[in-house]
Amino acid sequence: MIERRGVSMRWSMAGMIIVMLLSGCAARPHKIEAEYVSELNYDRRSCDELRDEQFRLVEALNHAARSQKTARRWDIVAVVAIGLPVSSLSGMNRASEIARLKGEWAAVLSVAQRKSCDLQVLPDPTLKPRRRFFATDDASPPHAESAPEASDQ
Fold it and tell me: CA-CA distance, 147 to 145, in Å (whole number)?
């Protein structure tokens, strides 16, 4: 019984070490917070220019998010193999670029809203896609359906 605790303790320590090493890996793109960007950079732009800027930013975010996901994968492999997050250490990490782009995008959307531009708000390319629970267009989970209230009885 004492040996079991020792083996269990070793596995627990190994798990904690792996978690600590993986925490040094590149962040997931959807978990990176937007950096503050002043709206003054976009105040003098027309609605058409804001629309074009939004498309440019979404395309840049797509590219940066793909690069960040690759960096994260390489970090995980390297941490398991040699114990170091090499892509984060080598400059492949795009977290600061993603934070800046998200901040610029938020500023563009804010200015467009203030100017009442008819701007189609595009989905954040860094977010995980929502899983569908049904084959239909209704993406609400099964437990979201309302049950009859007890007061109706």
Answer: 6
Measured N-to-C along each axis, helices 47-82 and 2-22 cross at an angle, to the nearest 10 degrees, of 140
| The two structure tokens encoding residue 128 | 């995980």
> Which pLDDT does position 5 carry in this prediction?
57
Return the DSSP state at 143: G
* pLDDT tens sequence across 57-70: 999 999 998 888 88
Global confidence as pTM:
0.65
**Rounded Cα gap, residues 19 and 13, in angstroms:** 10
Neighbours of 111 (CB within 10 A): 21
Burial level of 31, CB count in 10 A (0-12/13-18/19+)?
Answer: exposed
